[in-house]
Amino acid sequence: MLQAYIVDDEAPARSRLRKLLKPLVDGGRVKVIGEAADGFEALAAFEKQGAELLFLDINMPELDGFGVLERLSPENRPFVVFTTAFDEYAIKAFEANAVDYLLKPISRERLEEAVVRVESLSKGGSGTAQSDERMAQLLDWLDEQAEAKLSASGPAAKEYLKQMSIPYRDRILIVPVERLLSIEIAEGITRLHVLEEQDVGPKRRIRQHIVSYTLEQLEARLDPAAFMRVHRSAIVQLGHITEMMSWFSGRYKLILTGGHEVIASRERSKQLKERLTM
After folding, report:
1. Taking the model in full, what pTM does it have?
2. Cβ atoms 54, 4 nearer than 8 A
3. Each residue of 46-77: pLDDT tens digit?
4. Whether the Cβ atoms of residue 54 and residue 79 lie closer than 8 Å to each other
5. How are strands ordered across the β-sheet holding 79-84?
6. CA dihedral in degrees (45, 49, 52, 55; nearest 10)?
7. DSSP letter (8 states) at residue 131
8. Do residues 96 and 79 lie in contact, with contact meaning Cβ atoms separated by under 8 Å?
9. C-alpha span between 107 and 251 (Å, rounded)
10. Where does residue 3 rank: exposed (0-12), middle (13-18), buried (19+ CB within 10 A)?
């Protein structure tokens, strides 16, 4: 039985992974001995109680997954399966000798496939052949994703999003884009700022949701007549801008419905002013 540890800064992600692992736990193949919400907590726990298998998120505050991996002793290092919402770290993960790289939302089939690889390695199987095969599969998959992104951004893709599917706890929310205030990215994490459905008036509540899409992917699917990139790390819905306040160095602070604030870059501030004052 593999002794496993789960490391992810999002409690819903840890809970979902536990649920996905339940058939393997019930089958006596995996035992989850603990979990951590950040890299430092994971290192401290691992020093007290080692594990054979580490399910490790990459994007975490303060100390990310690669930082955890660097601090683990090579002599006592577990098998590592990265779990993340971003595909751009895949090559780096395999260069760091990770056993597998699971993209969120993780399917039960892919999770079991990763566990099978770890089981084989723990019994003395050849890691080099498996790693080479997985790397080849990964490169093929990344090529397919790149082609899909190009196709989605090409002239044939004229159907814009009318609603978005957002993972939230143990469910998926279907949110009309009319309620989307802004999309902002910080430290590699994309957050949607969405108005609560039942609220009305100027004091409407705003909820944040983390999604796995990049700003470029969402910008390509949103109607440019309604949305505008106002900064390299922010997109706003123009219809929700209630005020434009002069800020530093020719920039504008945008006040959106519900009081949410976004700072536009200097160049985009000029474009925004021209666009909204025609």
Report:
1. 0.51
2. yes
3. 888 888 999 999 988 888 899 998 898 877 78
4. yes
5. 30-36, 2-7, 53-57, 79-84, 100-103
6. -20
7. H
8. no
9. 44
10. middle
